[in-house]
Prior knowledge:
The complex is a heterodimer.
Chain A: H1 8-29, H2 41-45, H3 50-79, H4 83-94, H5 101-112, H6 117-124, H7 136-160, H8 164-172, H9 177-188, H10 190-205, H11 210-214, H12 222-231, H13 236-259, H14 264-267
Helix pairs in contact in A: 1-13, 3-7, 3-10, 7-10, 8-9, 10-13, 12-13
Chain B: H1 2-27, H2 43-51, H3 54-84, H4 88-103, H5 106-124, H6 132-157, H7 160-168, H8 173-202, H9 205-210, H10 218-226, H11 233-279
Helix pairs in contact in B: 1-11, 2-11, 3-6, 3-8, 4-6, 6-8, 7-8
Amino acid sequence: MKTKRLADPYLVWMAIFTIVPLGIVVYFAFTDSATGAFTFKNIVNIGNYIPIFVKSIWLALVSSIICMVIGYPVAYYIAGRSHKAQRFLYMLIMLPMCISFLLRTMAWVALLDDTGIINGFVTAMGLKALPLIRTNGAVVLGMVYNYLPYMIMPLYTVIMKIDPRLVEAAQDLGCSNTQVFRRVVFPLSVPGIISGFTMVFVPAVSTFYISQKLGSSGTTLIGDVIESQFKTAYNPNLGAALSLVLMVLVFICIGIMNRFSDDEEVATV
Amino acid sequence: MRTFNKVFTILVLVFLYIPMIVLAVASFNNGTDPAVWQGFTLTNYGELFRDGVLLPLLANSFIVAVISSLLATALGTMAALGIHAMGPRMKRTVMGVTNIPLTNPEIVTGVSLALLFAFVGTLLKVSNVLGFVTLLIAHITFNLPYVILSVTPKLSQMDPDLREAALDLGCTPAQAFFKVVIHEIMPGIVSGALMSFTMSLDDFVISYFVYGPNFVTLPVEIYNYTKKPLQPKIYALFTLLFLAILLVMVLMNLLEAKDDRQQSVARRAFGGLRKERAEE
């Protein structure tokens, strides 16, 4: 079969620009920045960053759960509309994703700032300005805002594909609407939930912009630390070690989430 | 329940679009703080076109997005054809590798490529290896999986008899591809190309680690800008970009609608054919 060989350039490309770079990350993580000798120093140093890892995972987890709770009813509603309306609503959900997330986050800064738009309304009503920005809540809001479409997309795809005859069958067999949802629709949409969860969690846990703009020094996340190791502190070896741990963490999380789902293919979409 | 979901969906859409409205309004604001309205003006738009700082950066973003999405589409479509012809085991391995850039945090992809380029730089004894080429390579790398994931399903949906019929009628494999197969998988190729174009145009995280000072793209510059007080002409540029993207989205929507219609027509025709055969 000669057709197979068409993939060769791609395989070579992926080997050089995906596999080899990950190998270099591992190499840097285990070498000394000054001498280039093998060392566990960087990995041991990661111990100092455990609270930051925990905080990143915690905030990303909270954001993913909020995204799921908000995204599910939206996906469910869209999937129940006519074909044309579905396409239009889907486009409306996707459209904000095409605009630089840096600028959208800046807009939230303008909204949440101490002298921002929301506090403008609050003080106009004669109330005291609320402490909105530079809080954990603001960082979570930024994550939910930026990654919510990633949750809605897979949920919508999965719910849309549920065979309406299954719902009818459940109704015929005497299920109430709540029971139909709990016993038929929800279990069938689990692969979508898992896929959406992964798609929100991975970028949220590794973000470095949202936390800088909407958070404070207390909300430094692991992405911020990695970025500073490469851009300001210039310790690529420590940065590589942190990236390696982050990558392993993400793959473990994905592995755990895929355990909940029987359908491997949907979870990797 | 239905009304609740409807109201809820509308609220979520409002939530998604509030920052857009803030930015669009700020582009007409006669002041630098988007939180304080100081009167309507168009000077931000005028300045955007006059000062010649942001537009060349937008052009840079476009150049990278066009070249990287075209190359990724060509390479990715070839790869999808190859993967489609592979055995199930090989296919699973290759798709696993394809998924790496998709599941890996972007910052890790960016860092790993930055380290690779630095490594190559020291090998070649070049002090400043980062620039247009490294940016292009990075963009092609993260675009490839999107192309493959949109072309592969179209290949599996395609009736394999069509290609064989073309071969039986005397086409060479290359002719069969360009006369038959490519038309069947075109919607996948187009959506893969458009997806990688938009991903590339808007990419910040990966670009941030592999760009060089000689070739800066718009998102990277916006990041560098946002460390200082923002200039309102950025809002003006954003508003124009929003309109452009809206146009592309509507176009994509129409293309998909056309594709759907063609498919349903084809399905009906095939359905009729199958029925006839069954009746015989």
